[in-house]
């Protein structure tokens, strides 16, 4: 048998029951069908005043912890993700693969660029309030050892514990670009993961997966996705807005990103964040 006033029909699962009570001044007590009509009218009136707000826009950050400018972009976006109401997707990528695919070279391979980059990083670190410092043996640390294992580990973190990706990424940057520590040896990666809040067992379990086909293929696919967006280095920020895709290169395009999002740019350290630093 059907429910009164609704009609007979097969059961389709749990039924949500709404209890509607007239608000003072909204509707007078009535009886029968008139009562039901009044209640539905009251519900429509109440719902019409509800506002869920705009859905967050998706912004992707493709990065490699070997890239200091990636760290700067990462910190700015993490500071603004809630202020701007964006769905920030962190995308661990391999900068070596992007440089090879695009035919580009690391900026430090050119002597003049290397000199400029060292001073540039120092200035930007102070300006953006990021504790970034050049490694003493830059060529061995950055160009010699690379970041393959570290980026595979971050890929595993994203697959298994995405809620930890921001913290683990930051700790790897802190090791190589703040404390001049290794990020290639297993113990170094485990130390970063544990400092980010992972248990030893959890971190070891993830590290054991870095050489699996699933992880290798995922890192490769993410790197290829960056190349398809037009990347020739890292970081790149990709904003998806109204069926359009905007790719921005570097850490110094955040004011332009704010413009595209229709949001306010309040500097690299917005007031709400500055109060906590």
TrEMBL record:
Q: Which organism is it from?
A: Sus scrofa (Pig)
Gene Ontology terms, MF aspect:
glutathione peroxidase activity; glutathione transferase activity
Q: Which PANTHER family match?
A: GLUTATHIONE S-TRANSFERASE KAPPA (PTHR42943), GLUTATHIONE S-TRANSFERASE KAPPA 1 (PTHR42943:SF2)
- What name appears for this protein in its UniProt entry? Glutathione S-transferase kappa 1
KW Transcription (keyword) present: no
Provide one Gene Ontology cellular component: cytoplasm
Which UniProt keyword terms apply here?
A: Transferase
**Keyword match NADP:** no
């Amino acid at each position: 048998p059907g429910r009164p006033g609704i009609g007979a029909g097969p059961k389709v699962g749990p039924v949500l029951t709404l209890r509607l009570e007239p608000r003072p001044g909204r509707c007078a007590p009535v009886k029968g069908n008139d009562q039901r009509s009044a209640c539905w009218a009251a519900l429509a009136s109440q719902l019409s005043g509800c506002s869920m707000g705009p859905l967050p826009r998706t912004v992707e950050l493709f990065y490699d912890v070997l890239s200091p400018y990636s760290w700067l972009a990462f910190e700015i976006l993490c500071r603004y993700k809630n202020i701007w109401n964006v769905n920030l997707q962190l995308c661990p990528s391999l900068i070596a693969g992007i440089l090879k695919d695009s035919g580009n070279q690391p900026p430090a391979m050119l002597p003049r660029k290397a000199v400029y980059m060292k001073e540039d990083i120092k200035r930007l670190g102070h300006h953006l309030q990021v504790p970034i410092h050049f490694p003493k043996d830059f060529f061995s640390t950055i160009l010699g050892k690379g970041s393959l294992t570290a980026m595979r580990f971050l890929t595993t973190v994203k697959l298994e514990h995405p809620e930890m990706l921001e913290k683990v990424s930051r700790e790897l940057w802190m090791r190589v670009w703040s404390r001049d520590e290794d990020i290639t040896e297993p113990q170094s990666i485990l130390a970063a993961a544990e400092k980010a809040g992972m248990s030893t067992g959890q971190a070891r379990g993830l590290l054991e997966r870095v050489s699996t086909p699933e992880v290798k293929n995922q890192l490769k696919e993410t790197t290829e996705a960056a190349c398809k967006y037009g990347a020739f280095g890292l970081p790149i920020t990709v904003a998806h807005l109204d069926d359009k895709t905007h790719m921005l290169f570097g850490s110094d395009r955040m004011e332009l990103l704010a413009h595209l999002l229709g949001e306010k740019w309040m500097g690299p350290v917005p007031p709400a964040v500055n109060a906590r630093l």
